[in-house]
Amino acid sequence: MKIHRILFIHLLLTAGVYAQDYPYQNPALSPEERAEDLVSRLTIEEKATLMCDVSDAIPRLGIKKFNWWSEALHGFANTNDVTVFPEPVGMAASFDDELVYKIFDATSDEVRAKYHQAMRNGEENKRFMSLSVWTPNVNIFRDPRWGRGQETYGEDPYLTSRMGVQVVKGLQGPEDAKYRKLLACAKHYAVHSGPEWSRHELNLNSISQRDLWETYLPAFKSLVQDADVRQVMCAYQRLDDEPCCGSDRLLQQILRDQWGFEHLVVSDCGAIQDFFTSHNVSSDAVHAAAKGVRAGTDVECQWNNHNYKLLPEAVKRGLVQEEEIDIRVKRVLKGRFELGEMDPDSIVPWAQIPVSVINSEKHRQLALEMARKSMTLLQNKNKVLPLNKTLDKIAVLGPNADDEPMLWGNYNGTPVRTITILDGIKSKVDEERIVYDQACDLVEDKVTESYFSKIGIDGKKGFKATYWNTPDYSGPVIAETYITNPLKLTTAGQHEFASGVNLEGFSASYVTDYTADKDEELAFKFGATGHFELFVNGKSLRQTNNWRTLPSTLPFPVEKGKTYNIEIKYAQLNNWEANLEFNFGKEIPVDFTGLIAKLEGIETVIFVGGLSTLLEGEEMPVNYPGFKGGDRTDIELPAVQRNCLKALKDAGKTVIFVNNSGSAIGLVPETQTCDAILQSWYGGESGGQAVADVLFGDYNPSGKLPITFYRDTTQLADFEDYAMDGRTYRYMKEDPLFKFGFGLSYTTFDIGEASVPKTEIAKGQPLQFTVPVKNTGDRSGTEILQIYLRKTDDADGPIKTLKQFKRVKLKPGEQQQITIEIAPESFQFYSEEKLEMAAEPGKYQIFYGNSSDEADLKTFSINLKQLQS
């Protein structure tokens, strides 16, 4: 970008008054030259600290404190008042990588603006407020039980690669700019997709070379070679007996020698520690640090007590050479110089991005556009959708209907405003014509009758709350108050727990008494981000230290006439937003009789359910039936929701089911109890508006499934088995419920016969052909033309695999001739003979249509011939 170079030269000439005593301080030199000079001036102890994700300042050389760990999965994470876009798996359903680029270009603008605002305000450079963002997650979503699959771009290597490349380009900025906008990160390298509960110990020692090269590595290779991603994060588990962050094969032979990667390798957080605490491949922290460096891990992420701080000791013992450490530190410093982080803001164009871009109207519109494009219509019996806005009455039910955080997904920031699905529906239908009821919980088949009205202390109702502006309940009391409603406190949006209480580094105590009026079993319901400990009569019943709020239920029997002193100790931890929720009372089984009576005279019901990031996510202490550690053990919709939908159908209602989830759910019963099913993922800050736009026909859905929706868990192999046989549309022999690439529209399309100029092409040449696509319905709409390929004589290869796609927008009756080009590398498959990816001469079958289902595809064959020498 010429404008960046011009601005840089101008500012350098007009503002060059800062000291340049050493070459590393000279912005005119290359990042490599500056890093080479600076590393020569560092002590071994200083080098070690620079290789930690929390890198301490080195004042004598003018090096500032720097944090490598920020997140930007779908917007700037772990910060307030930013734009929150749909979760990546929802973005993948759009099959729109051009829009993905725009979203991450907008995200990088917001990160830069937030970062420089914080620095100018004198704030500390802390975790989650950095120019290094550990995004995107390009692991293959091979099993729907994995709770983190929502962070990925689905189950297909080609789709994941296309999306991931645009994420990186949007985050890092133009390659011809002097400075990188941000440093993006391809994670988690390699072969990682759950389970969460065993990721620190799992050893993947039977993965075929075919699965490795055709499924698990392509996206990483694309991000390295096609997007020049500046960071790669190595994963927790072992591959062929070696931890990924200590694997010479992964980090040297493949990543650097074969792919030519020149930049940083960062560890997943705690992965080096796992060498001696979980994998038992190192005897202690010193050996683990040395092993990580020798293998090629340049930066260690660790919650505290970094093992890399022990590298000087490792050098003394001869476990690693200082020259090896120098190579790693040069990469670290080169990355920082590329950001301009060590230069004055005045000469870094990205530092001039105004804070007005943050959650600007332009960015809000991008969030809404992607949310709309992610909407995937799976069922529409008798064309019940779109709904008529003049309906006399309509019911909006379900645990996700009016839930803001559900829409945010995971690894998220907090938006300025969120449009819930109920809010969106209110924009279409007068509020007095809407009957809203939560109807049921996400999972629990009981409701809590709160006993908050029965508690008190010091002659006052509720909990007595005491606050300190220290993390350990010491020093002067800052505030005392009484809380008479169930606790729901948060610092999100810069809200104080109480007047005068800091947003960080504070602690609190909540105390009350309850006298039981009968023998019964009650339940404590709680969740917290931070330190939480529950005491009854001085005895600790539960203690957690969570980085997000996860719901928990603890049964507790009480005896008539006995008084129970209840105390909660809370403390804000690390850089996490503080959050505390607490209620207690009697649990009552769900009975839908009252709900059905409330809906008398209402024919149409919108039920908004599914899952949320309270249930699926990263390494979560959630163990409801069907859920374990953030993952699932079965994929059916939770029973309480299934039962509610059945009760609605038995009552004669027309049921539209809006399913929120970051993963596939086995919806076989729901195809019978529901007239329409809309898969709406986690739609971000405008997700509710997008749902309403689709339900009421103001937007014609065009989303396609980026993952297979299996019928039930019996169609899945063992979760810890990473062999692809039988998994995903590429290898599945049974019929799933909804296939990869499937999605309905309110109009109809006809995909005609392809015009293929040549049925034989030379190896190394692209394949070009033309496909006519026509809108045969009465609404404008978008079809997604999908191209799949199979090597005809390859019995062990994929049944078919995606190699190209195009979005085609058409007016009613309009037809377009769509030109398709399949790149030469698309013909590469793993060669058992050559032990590498190769485009072998022979016959290839080309499939084209609007889903991966054979019934939706047409086909022709092409012969790939060897070039004559």
From TrEMBL:
Tell me the superkingdom of the source: Bacteria
Q: Which Gene3D superfamilies match?
A: Glycoside hydrolase family 3 C-terminal domain (3.40.50.1700), Glycoside hydrolase, family 3, N-terminal domain (3.20.20.300), Immunoglobulins (2.60.40.10)
- Which residues belong to the signal peptide in this entry? none
InterPro entries the UniProt entry points to: BXL (IPR044993), Fn3-like (IPR026891), GH (IPR017853), Glyco_hydro_3_C (IPR002772), Glyco_hydro_3_C_sf (IPR036881), Glyco_hydro_3_N (IPR001764), Glyco_hydro_3_N_sf (IPR036962), Ig-like_fold (IPR013783)
Q: Name one GO biological process term.
A: xylan catabolic process
Keywords in alphabetical order, please: Hydrolase, Signal
PA14 domain sequence ranges? 458-600
Q: Which GO terms describe its molecular function?
A: alpha-L-arabinofuranosidase activity; xylan 1,4-beta-xylosidase activity
Protein family = Belongs to the glycosyl hydrolase 3 family.
NCBIfam families in alphabetical order? xylosidase_Xyl3A
Q: What is this protein called?
A: Glycosyl hydrolase
Originating species: Leeuwenhoekiella nanhaiensis
Supply the source organism's classification.
Answer: Bacteria, Pseudomonadati, Bacteroidota, Flavobacteriia, Flavobacteriales
